[in-house]
Amino acid sequence: MLEVKNLTFQVQENGVERSIVENISFDVADGEMLVITGPNGGGKSTLAKVLMGIEKASAGQIILDGEDISNYDINHRADAGIGYAFQQPPRFKGMTVMKLLSLSAGKELKREECCKLLSTVGLCANEYIEREVDGTLSGGEMKRLEIATVLAKSHKLCIFDEPEAGIDLWSFSMLIEQFEKIHKEKKESLVLISHQERIIQMADRIMVIEDGKIASIGATDEILPQLLGKTADSYSCLTCR
Fold it and tell me: Residues in domain ABC transporter (predicted)?
């Protein structure tokens, strides 16, 4: 279980402190899928980076299965059981897909294991396993590969930052299938940042963040109708596929 207590992240702008995330508290139960949504620039991606340890919180606590990980760096949080998928997956010229999957797993994977992971996300193993993780891969290919790196290791909690961004419809469908499978198995908790209605509909609960604060949080059947009732001008949050 993830517990977040009074989490705040501040930055200095022209000598003045500004809160990007302010006094946020929530929890994610074992096996639960929480989707975080809200207007662009509201602090969603910053929150994800603070949870993973990419950014250091200015205040507050992050507790995972009773263990206070607030002062852990990104490596120690990964060891504690948090997996993270970037909105824009990084590329590594000179590194093969097989090497990246092995690094993600924390051990040297056999070719068959890498092939299975690639097949799981809809990539033909023989075509990709020796390819470099560089600019020759499309956005959809990178997104699927990013998911494979998360699947390469068991986690207590997986965080996906706008997994639908920049991918084609085929990749998006594969993405939905993977999330449905992970959620059905209930082996890992999921936190997804998304604007996509299809992904939001899958959630157990929805949390809406505006201006760095929680605007609302609750069961999907309670919060989703409120989001759909907002006009595009006042709340350009949801998109459909």
Answer: 2-236
Please give the domain boundaries of the chain with CATH numbers for all domains. 2-229 (3.40.50.300)
Q: Which residue has the tokens 């975080």?
A: 36
Task: Provide the whole-model pTM.
Answer: 0.86
* pLDDT at res. 139: 81
Residue 173: burial class (beta carbons within 10 Å; 0-12, 13-18, 19+): middle
How far apart CA 173 and CA 106 sit, in angstroms, is 28
| H helix intervals, the chain | 44-52, 74-80, 97-105, 111-120, 125-128, 139-151, 169-185, 197-201, 220-229
